[in-house]
Design brief:
It catalyses: a peptidoglycan chain = a peptidoglycan chain with N-acetyl-1,6-anhydromuramyl-[peptide] at the reducing end + a peptidoglycan chain with N-acetylglucosamine at the non-reducing end. The protein has helices at about 1-30, 50-60, 70-80, 95-105, 120-130, 145-150, 175-195, 205-220, 225-240, 245-250, 265, 290-300, 325-335; strands at about 40-45, 85-90, 110-115, 165-170, 310, 315-320. The protein has about 350 residues and is mainly alpha-helical.
């Protein structure tokens, strides 16, 4: 028995030495920087992709300069193979195989952003999402919107103003309808938060009417500090049964070809339901996506007696309590510069 052990000892030593050298060689390879073509290489690890398949793909693409089995064996021995998470990963230069495994286990995938802007219309939002290069396109304008978003249709099915403008983060594989669904739910959440805290005795019968007012405030405001005062002008006019007489509502109701050239004849058009120069009260729907600040202003207006305002030309407005004061402000700030200027709002 001892003789056999003595005979096996040299072979055992050789085997141990070879194993140790193999481990050292493997460690050296796993420690070497990956061969990345670009400074920010994108690895798309799709759901259901096995670790062996991923390692083989990296070897085939030359990202790892050693047999894929080395990475595969190491990952299985350490438990990393079963812990990786699918998604799109950005591999920075200098990353080695150990770093790669840690990244895939962490799930720190690439995130993209979609920003919906305050004051956009629903059509502008849809166009933006349709052109976003990182979103999968699912929205079909020929199909019912609310069914596509998988939400219960609201009482007012017109989608204008029902999506909250904000920046939405998403990962590869996200859809345009997914962003729309998040924006819709966010708007409902904001309204549910703000409506109960509203000022007393406002002329709104529902959060939806407040949303309509907020959209008008959003379109009329050039300076943030004026939002509540602008809201106050419109609320005061509603309370006095005066027409709102605001250009943005009229423009919203015009055909697309005429929106950029508002004329006096448009202000006399009774057929436009959004013509607040002719129709009293709020327009039928919101006219844009209002942000939280505009919603807050609509629910907390500052009423200081002003019933009119006119643009000064620098983004701010001159507010007036009487028609005479307003007409003088129009002469001071606008008519001297542009004879065809129309102020908003004007006389009752």
């Amino acid at each position: 028995m001892v003789k056999w052990l003595k005979r096996l000892l040299p072979f055992s030593l050789v085997a141990i030495t070879l194993a140790a050298l193999t481990v050292l060689w493997a460690d050296q390879k796993l420690s070497e920087p990956l061969n990345l073509v670009d400074d920010d290489y994108l690895l798309d690890l799709r759901p259901g992709t096995g670790f062996s398949a991923m390692a083989a793909s990296l070897a085939a693409d030359g990202v790892i300069a050693y047999p894929a089995d080395i990475l595969n064996v190491y990952a299985r021995l350490t438990g990393s193979a079963g812990a990786i998470q699918s998604g799109e990963y950005r591999l920075p230069s200098g990353l080695n195989s150990y770093d790669l495994l840690a990244l895939l286990v962490s799930g720190d995938v690439v995130r993209y952003r979609a920003t919906l802007i305050e004051g956009w219309t629903f059509a502008e939002m849809v166009s933006y999402l349709a052109e976003h290069p990182e979103l999968d396109k699912r929205f079909d304008p020929a199909q019912p919107l609310w069914a596509q978003l998988e939400v219960t249709a609201p009482l007012h099915e017109n989608p204008e103003g029902l999506f909250f403008p904000d920046t939405y983060s998403f990962v590869k594989g996200a859809t345009d309808t997914g962003i729309m669904k998040r924006a819709y739910r966010r708007m409902q959440a904001v309204l549910n938060q703000e409506w109960p805290k509203r000022s007393d005795n406002l002329p709104y019968d529902s959060p939806y009417e407040a949303l309509i007012m907020a959209s008008i405030v959003e379109k009329e405001t050039g300076q943030p500090h004026e939002r509540q005062r602008i809201a106050g002008v419109f609320v005061s006019r509603l309370e006095k049964n005066m027409r709102l007489q605001t250009d943005p509502t009229v423009i919203y109701g015009l055909p697309a070809a005429e929106k950029k050239n508002l004329r006096s004849r448009h202000l006399k058009d009774d057929s436009n339901p959004y013509n607040t120069y002719r129709h009293k009260g709020l327009p039928p729907t919101p006219i844009a996506l209002p942000g939280r600040a505009a919603i807050h202003a609509a629910l907390h207006p500052v009423q200081d007696g002003a019933l009119f305002f006119v643009a000064k030309g620098d983004g701010s407005h001159q507010f007036s309590e009487t028609l005479e004061q307003h007409q003088q402000a129009v002469r001071d700030y606008q008519l001297k510069r542009r004879k065809d200027y129309r102020s908003s709002p004007t006389k009752p």
